[in-house]
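A reminder from the course coordinator: this example appears on the midterm review sheet, so study it carefully.

Given structure:
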């Protein structure tokens, strides 16, 4: 058994975002939600292909995928012409995966299926899910969490022996099912030989009249296959982002992670609560970031530099040992051991040579 394939569901419109931008392309910390998810997925070993299912404004999402260039694994798009539920999305995604003999099991290939609106999900959690799935021999393994308030989530239903029997969506709950706190996160690993036949048997017999991927779990268990779960340790990782308040909350959590990562790598932060650093910013060890500083986009800073206070760098490269005080720079190149500021503005495309001194109140074009 090997986790050779992944499928990222990115076809949704995201009406509650109140934006013309497709939901998967909504940004936090300078990077789209889809890119955050893809970064976690691409850290998995042995993947051969990642299928991204697109639908609403498909061309824009496909354009984002082209930004990855050539990768191992291969990244391809599959279009879902009508958004008729997660089961229909997986059906579209399967068209870009190997055509296996359905229903035989034991194909040796597994597929990870996950949504594009969980930007806080980490590669470590996905690797742990893959390990649990491989060791158990499950037909499917669901990433779950214990929710203090399970409203809105699909519930994981078990029989008297504790075995998983089905997932019931929140709006379709009956009786005591609403009290279940073990909930589905929308992240699964399936045996790829079993998933297609389950998808073909889905029916829109629910309140939304959609094809639910969650119904595949019941179909597998009814056919005698074992379905297991792995509970995520940090529930914040798997919380979906469906509206702007949730996006803002997720961005705050992501920013804390980013700061902690840089501090752990030897970057000094003075009053880190006032510092903003985007996800793809690079900073060398021994550098100090002073208060009220913004490092955005694809900014790269060398080692043993000092940036700030009150500086803003966007898509700017800074060499080792440079000292920038109250400097605003956009798409600029600043050499090594430069002294600049305070109150310096460096415009797009400008270059500052190594060991240069940029006087206060300067404007460089």
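Designed residues:
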């Amino acid at each position: 058994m090997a986790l050779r394939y992944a499928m990222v569901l990115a076809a949704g419109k995201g009406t509650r975002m109140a934006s013309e931008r497709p939901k998967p392309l909504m940004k936090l910390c300078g990077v789209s939600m889809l890119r955050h998810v893809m970064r976690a997925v691409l850290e998995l070993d042995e993947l051969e292909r990642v299928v991204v299912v697109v639908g609403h404004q498909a061309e824009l999402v496909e354009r984002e995928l082209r930004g990855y260039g050539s990768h191992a694994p291969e990244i391809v798009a599959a279009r879902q012409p009508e958004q008729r539920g997660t089961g229909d999305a997986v059906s579209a995604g399967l068209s870009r995966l190997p055509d296996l003999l359905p229903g035989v099991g034991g194909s040796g290939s597994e597929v990870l299926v996950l949504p594009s609106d969980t930007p806080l999900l980490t590669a470590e959690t996905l690797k742990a899910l893959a390990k649990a799935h491989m060791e158990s021999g499950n037909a499917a393994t669901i990433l779950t969490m214990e929710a203090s308030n399970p409203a809105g989530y699909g519930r994981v239903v078990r029989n008297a022996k504790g075995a998983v029997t089905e997932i019931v969506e929140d709006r379709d709950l009956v009786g005591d099912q609403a009290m279940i706190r073990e909930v589905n996160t929308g992240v699964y690993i399936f045996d790829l030989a079993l998933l297609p036949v389950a998808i073909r048997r889905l029916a829109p017999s629910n309140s939304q009249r959609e094809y639910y991927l969650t119904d595949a779990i019941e179909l597998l268990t009814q056919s005698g296959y074992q379905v297991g779960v792995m509970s995520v340790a940090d529930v914040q990782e798997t919380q979906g982002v469906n509206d702007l308040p949730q996006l803002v909350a997720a961005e705050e959590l992501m920013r804390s992670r980013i700061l902690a990562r840089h501090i752990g790598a030897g970057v000094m932060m003075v009053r880190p609560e006032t510092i903003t650093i985007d996800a793809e910013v690079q900073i060398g060890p021994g550098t100090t970031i002073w208060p009220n500083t913004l490092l955005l986009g694809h900014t790269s800073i060398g080692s043993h530099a000092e940036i700030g206070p009150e500086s803003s760098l966007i898509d700017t490269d800074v060499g080792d040992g440079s000292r920038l005080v109250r400097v605003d720079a956009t798409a600029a190149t600043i050499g090594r051991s430069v002294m600049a500021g305070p109150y310096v503005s460096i415009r797009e495309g400008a270059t500052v040579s190594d060991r240069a001194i940029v006087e206060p109140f300067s404007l460089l074009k």
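The chain is about 20% helix and 30% strand. The longest helix spans residues 244-264.
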